[in-house]
Amino acid sequence: MAALTKHIIEIAGCKTCVRRGGSGPTLLYLHGAGGSGNIIDFAESLTDKFDVILADHPGFGESDLPPWLDNIHDAAYFYLDLMKHLNLRDVHIVGSSLGGWIALEIAVRSTERIKSLVLSAPAGLNLKETRRGDIFMWEPPQRIRNMIYDQGIAEKILSVKPTEEQAAIAVKNEFATARLAWEPRFFDPNLHKWLHRIDVPVQIVWGDSDKVFPLPFGENLQKHIPGSQLTVLTKCGHLPHVETPDRYKSIILNFIESTASTFSQSKGAAA
Amino acid sequence: MKFTLFHLMPYADLDLEAAANYATSWLQTPNTFYDTEKGAALYDRYLTELERGEDLGFDGIAVNEHHSTAYGMMPSPIVTASALARRTKTVKIAILGSALPLRGHPLTLAEEHAMIDNISRGRLITGMVRGIGAEYHVWGVNPVFSHERFHEAHDLIIQAWTEPGITSWHGKHYNHEYVNLWPRPYQKPHPPIWIPSQGSRETIEWAAHPKRKYVYLQTFSPIKSVQKYLKMYRDQCEKYGYVCDDKQLGWAVPIYVAETDEIARKEAKIHYENFRNRFLKMPIEMLLPPGYSSIESMKGVAATKAQIVGDVTLELCIDMGMFICGSPETVRQKLESCWKDMRFEHLLSMLQFGTLPSDLTNKSMDLFAKEVMPKLRVAAAATPSMAAE
């Protein structure tokens, strides 16, 4: 297992913090609203199998807030530029929550550089019958408690006081999340029309106790993406990478090693 | 010195005991708490109180906009101002203000304000605000774009009011192929513009700009903040190379007047504390949604959280100068000394607050209008303006 090394690179005029490490096929991890901080451990655990890339989205973490960032589409075009800039091919994209939504927005635009998608409780679609949790209304401790099923883990996280730097980044992430997802709230009203364009294998992962986007959101997304599969994690909330990293990791590995590689060979042969 | 009677029109009949199950009267208290018979009676009462403002000699009467809350029953100040425009003859009518960024199409605001200005034959004062944080939750508008939308909406409204004939507007948030406002505003070039604010350097720099010279109104703040921000405005004018006219400054403050200091405090206490601690109060997540304030100003928020959203007492608020309460003489003295210190032309008195009932509201209005206002007018007239000193 390798540590991720931090680089600052300029993409679309935005100074971007990119962490990279490991070797193997490329795995691009797209973090959620909480930023890259709570992903790093999990991303590092993937470096024994993959060349892992974890960037701070524009406006998040240690990346700049570029003047062009107004909505989720801008974030998607940014990542298309990033993959081109780094000359990435056959990329396995793994996205959590907001990052999963960005992954969907990238993939409906172009799967040219993408080999597969793993989506952990992604935002992106609306569901009239089911109300989503309002993370903007939850005070910080309540937010942690609502995101995690195992309250022991939640309390453990809450017992660690964030550093001043972490607190400042949390505010920055919150602002950037609102920029992308306040209205419409965590969905793009046009996305559902084009999900059929996603022609790479898709694995969806969902905690059965997700209070942010309850499970029906996952079932709905699965119906919208032809050939996608949904795996439900029992006794798990919105953050499988925090709460149950081993189960989550084995889903990612099994999926990429079996389905994704087979599919890509047949896709390649057909082309 | 000019006097404006300001009203929030709270849903004073809120079942406070049952509503205590909700953290705030904003957004989360369901509208099943609103009784239409009681609400209709309150509208009648409050509009009558404002109409009395003209008879009592106020220079202006003022309404404002809040959404989805018992704090104020005026989601549309356009409606209340329209009703007042036909029932009054001479008094100014101030909308303080319309929340520009919340509107999908700000041209509708330009139209509505122009209509009221015509109906009242030039008595309208247009206040422009962003709306408070909770309203971005209620309305869904992205708080990150609040400033952008405010400025773009303002520029569009001014264009619609001042550029004759057919123009167009193509901005980031609003697009109109045709801008051709009917009616045009009655006042030329447009109604006076007031900017109510809780205090922000950015707002002051913008409002004081020589192109605008908008009236800056410090609202519901400790007296130290009122002093700080009114001075900041004057200093900003100086930086722009002109002397601030007292007419550019205002202060909005809740006031209660009764026979003696003791009676005033006793009568006002529960109603004022209800206003502060029950009607106004909201969690920080609602007050300051992400992007509503600058990222820098958010950094200290966690540390001062208790101060921002904690309960207060009437006594504390009187001491901090957030509430003026007492006998006519006490109230006169306090206001006169504040005025001498700050020289704001406009005093906005909120004489009804929280659950204050009709009889006490009217008593306080009478005492203020008859025993405080005339003396302050005399004192102000006898003093040269700060600019002239």
| Most extensive chain-chain interface | A-B, 17 and 18 residues
Strand order of the largest sheet of chain B: 1-2-3-4-7-8-9-11
| Poorly predicted runs of chain A | 263-271
What is the string of helix and strand elements of chain B?
Answer: EHHEHEHEHHEEEHEHEHHHHHEHEH
Q: Indicate the CATH class of chain A.
A: Alpha Beta
Can you tell me the CATH architecture of chain A?
Answer: 3-Layer(aba) Sandwich
Kindly provide the name of the CATH class of chain B.
Alpha Beta
Report on the structure:
The complex is a heterodimer of chains A (271) and B (389). Chain A has nine helices and eight strands. Chain A has 271 residues and is of the alpha/beta class. Chain A has one domain (5-265): Alpha/Beta hydrolase fold, catalytic domain (Rossmann fold, 3-Layer(aba) Sandwich), CATH 3.40.50. Chain A has an eight-stranded mixed sheet with strand order 1-2-4-3-5-6-7-8, with helices on both faces. The longest helix of chain A has 26 residues, at 245-270. Mean pLDDT of chain A is 95; it is low at 263-271. With 389 residues, chain B is an alpha/beta fold. Chain B has a single domain, classed as TIM Barrel (Alpha-Beta Barrel), CATH 3.20.20. Chain B contains 15 helices and eleven strands. Chain B is globular and about 60 Å long. The two termini of chain B are 17 Å apart. The chains are: A alpha/beta (271), B alpha/beta (389). The interface between A and B is medium-sized, with 17 and 18 residues.
Question: Which properties best describe this structure?
Answer:
heterodimer, A: 271 residues, alpha/beta, Rossmann fold, 8-stranded mixed sheet, 9 helices, globular, disordered C terminus, B: alpha/beta, TIM Barrel, two-stranded antiparallel sheet, 15 helices, 46% helix
